[in-house]
Amino acid sequence: MALSMFDQMLFALVCGHTVVLGRLENAKSWTCEACGKVTDLSVSPAREALAKDWDTANQIDARAREGGERVVRAD
User: Fold this and answer.
1) Do strands 2-3 and 38-40 pair parallel, antiparallel, or not at all (unpaired)?
2) How far apart are CA 44 and CA 47, in angstroms?
3) Phi, psi (rounded to 5 degrees) for 22
């Protein structure tokens, strides 16, 4: 069993801190838990970076599934 990349990859916020990629699912913005700065995920460059990271995580998880692994999300 493998942990999904959505629960392993970190996404860089505009403040320089990071958050686990999977926590951003369906979010339009994210308030950094370390410093309180808001990252608007619907505008450049965050929008493109999030889309790229999301695609990468999807591809890695898909390859693992194709290889017979069971990919799970963290609770």
Assistant:
1) unpaired
2) 5
3) -60, -25
Tokens of 4: 């999904």
Indicate the pTM of the whole model. Answer: 0.89
Domain encompassing residue 66: 2-70
- How many helices (H) and strands (E) the chain has is answered by 1, 6
* Beta-carbon contacts of residue 44 (< 8 Å; ≥ 6 apart): none
Instruction: Report yes or no on 75 lying in a domain.
Output: no
The amino acid occupying position 62 is A
Number of domains observed in the structure of the chain: 1
Residue range 30-50, pLDDT digits in tens? 999 999 999 999 999 999 999
Residue 8 CB burial class (10 angstroms; 0-12, 13-18, ≥19): middle
